[in-house]
Amino acid sequence: MHVVIMGCGRVGAALAQTLEQRGHTVAIIDRDPTAFRRLGPAFGGRRVEGVGFDRDTLEEAGITEAGAFAAVSSGDNSNIIAARVARETFGVENVAARIYDPRRAEVYQRLGIPTVATVRWTADQMLRRLLPSGAEPLWLDPTGGVQLAEVHAAAAWVGHRVSRLQEETGTRVAFITRLGEAMLPTSDTVIQEGDLVHVVMRCDRVGDVEAAFSRGPEGDLR
């Protein structure tokens, strides 16, 4: 697939190099020609100097043949404008924009523009490590109704089946991380010590879910 990236900062350069290593063709746009130094001599993609939301610049980068577009410059407005041009003018299906302002990111997300809110994402990652209770979602749907979260399961759940965990907590177990590797559980999968349980739940039930995970199953029948 051909991918066009706007912004050759550290994120854009790393993204371009990773995509190329995975066999995709890449064109990266930046106003500052010295920014392309971050790509290194091994990068074989296109380096396009210009404004990332300018139609001629995008066409030079191969936007008409692109399957994806990433706007990762340092400007929120530029990223949103470029993302909209890529999607609405050139019909690129997979589009994402980096946004620093988390409030604006939520607005654009609800308007159908996939965003990565850098500040909010970093804060969420830190909170999940400081407060491993599952209160901060790994993923939140645009309507704010459903979330995917890592929830701490009390030791009392060890030895019980996933089916019982789901029934008593009102969640759906999306996957379990066991010994550092993700696995898709079945209803007969048994919770083991050290498992990280990732569940899908309604956002208005987070408190109830965390309480159920903390207290363990009702009774002690296995």
Determine the mean pLDDT. Answer: 87
Task: Please give the alpha-carbon distance between the first and last residues.
Answer: 50 Å
- Percent helix, as a range, is 25-40%
Q: What Rg is obtained from the alpha carbons, in whole angstroms?
A: 22 Å
Biggest β-sheet strands, sense, barrel = 6 strands, parallel
Q: Quickly give the CATH architecture of the largest domain.
A: 3-Layer(aba) Sandwich
SSE string, helices as H and strands as E: EHEEHEHEHEHEEHEEEH
Care to count the β-strands? 11
Q: Work out the count of structural domains.
A: 2
Structural class by helix and strand composition: alpha/beta
Helix tally equals 7
Would you tell me which CATH topology of the largest domain applies?
Rossmann fold
CATH class of the largest domain: Alpha Beta
Range of strand content: 15-25%
* Name given to the CATH homologous superfamily of the largest domain: NAD(P)-binding Rossmann-like Domain
Uncertain runs are none
How would you write the strand order of the largest sheet? 3-2-1-4-5-6
Approximate shape: elongated
Structure report:
With 222 residues, the protein is an alpha/beta fold. It folds into two domains: 2-123, Rossmann fold, CATH 3.40.50.720; 131-215, Alpha-Beta Plaits (2-Layer Sandwich). The chain is built from seven helices and eleven strands. The strands form two sheets. It has a six-stranded parallel sheet with strand order 3-2-1-4-5-6, with helices on both faces. The radius of gyration is 22 Å and the shape is elongated. The N and C termini lie far apart (50 Å). The model has no long low-confidence stretch (mean pLDDT 87).
